[in-house]
Amino acid sequence: MERVRLTLERIADITCPAEKRQFFLWDTEAPGLAVRVTATGAKSFIFESKLNRQTIRITLGDVRAWVLKSVWKDGKEIQRGAREEAGRLKTLIDQGKDPRQVAADEMEAVQAKRHEQAAAKLEAERIDAPALAAWSAYIEARHLKWGELTRRDHERASKEGGEVIKRGRKTSSDGLTQPGALRPLLRLPLVQINAERVQAWLADEVAKRPTHAALAFRLLRAFLNWCADRPEYAGQVQLSACASKTVRGELPKKGTKDDCLQREQLLLWFEHVRKLPNPVHAAYLQSALLTGARREELGGLRWDDVDFQWCSLTIRDKVEGQRVIPLTPYVLALLRDLKARNDTPPPQRLRQKAGESAPNWEPSPWVFSSASAASGRLQEPRIAHNKAIAAAGLPALTIHGLRRSFGTLAEWVECPTGVSAQIMGHKPSAIAEKHYRRRPLDLLRMWHTRIEAWILEQAGIEQPSEEAKLGLRFIAIA
Questions:
Q1: Which CATH class is domain 263-458?
Q2: What is the pTM of this model?
Q3: CATH class for the region spanning 3-97
Q4: What are the pLDDT digits (tens) for 172-207?
Q5: Which of 51, 153, 344, 467 has its C-alpha lying 20 to 30 A from 172's C-alpha?
């Protein structure tokens, strides 16, 4: 082993003998330090020593990237020298440590620290992120268990707003839709949604739109409860945000709605509802009163749910999932007329108005269909109902008021409360109803037909006889 004091000149002059693949020139000042030159002329600093009787050789790097002696400035080492690095490695070997394992451990520690810092940064970003991200995850996880109306309530409560108002009489100062009620809170990080913020938000919303504010509060409370059960959000949520008395004190007091058709109002109501120009609207409103069904239960009725042979309706409800109720004679006649209209194709000239690309015609699957609605079914029966109420000079009456009217008017024929509740889809409220009453459809039909007959009698309308069940009629549309 040739040893000399390494200098830049000697390093530059060193060459590899022709008969060898590599040549080493060892330094006299730093034990174990050498310059290795290969047959191709590549030169690099290496360190070699023995640990536990085994030779360890480590390549420091190209001689052009290293200096022989460390460079210092203002008491700080700004560039490590090959001799100092060789000394450090020699010290580790003297301590019984393998420099290669030490380097691997140091690299692993650096990587672990980087991962830890990156994870901490991501966690900080997640905590500081708006609650909208958690809200989207909440809707994605729960929307399959919700009905259409519940999904729409969540979308409306969190909508961004800022869209041009295209329909209706409601206007704003800038002509744009307003943000959803929950949008101001959902822009905040979850950890910042506390009782003070919710109280201030609720007080502001109740002053502008009390009913919608109460709904938005219930949606927010359910959302926070869901977050509390999720490990990724549990540490950020403050359940007291919706639980404190001061917050709940801002909620508007619940008022009891009592809109209901009285016995003496039935004649005027039927007279003007039957005069509505759209037969679908007229049939829907009369069916709502005579079945006591909820608004969306009736609106979502399909022809597959109507059994004309056995005179029954299968209604999808929010309590039991679905219920089967009788199809009474008058409602049967209304739906039979709608079925005939639905199954009768319009004239060719009317079909071509939609464009040459849609020459094929198919009947609608919806009982209360609407050609103008995107869903294909009746969406807003309230407008036609309000027109009929105004023309009749009757007090304001909601669509749900028709359901309330059915339950109230059923008492005139001394119908058992459990029977009317089962027809309307109410959850049983007594032990006997839950466990000891299993009413067949024919028993419901007997009472339901009596209720319908009495209501029609007060309206001056003759109830069709059950024996006079005619087949579907063909209606020609000019």
A1: mainly alpha
A2: 0.60
A3: alpha beta
A4: 555 677 788 898 898 888 888 888 999 999 989 888
A5: 153
